[in-house]
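Look over both lines:
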Amino acid sequence: MYNFNMIDFTNELRIHNLKATPQRLAISDAMQTHGHINIDALYTIMLKKFNSISLATIYKNINLMLENSFIQEVKLPQNKSVYELTKEVHSHLVCQKCNKILDINLELQTILNEAQAQSDFKISKSNLVLSGICKKCQ
């Protein structure tokens, strides 16, 4: 869990066994600024900072950052995945009109326990995304 207000990305990347390259620092900054960001939007931002950066370089860095748990992927129904800096376990609300994504802290343990009991599954990971219409779009 990070304190994103005054974060030192150089140190945080190193804690996650990642070199603090200019590209990774810029990706980290973009995720902190935008909260949830897809690859296309990230590529647009990165091109402004690194005019010769390739999409392949961005994917390579994203995959390394995912593998080292520095960032996490949020899979959205009928939309491209978005990425965010890793933080405490939480769920997401997605507006079906403006596509805004909000974090929400819900107690999921009861649901996970019930799902395990009904299915004999040992659940190791959960990702809850709730869709609806945000207050601004209502």
About this structure: The chain has a mean pLDDT of 91. The radius of gyration is 17 Å. Residues 19 and 65 are 10 Å apart (CA to CA). The first strand starts at residue 71 and ends at 74.
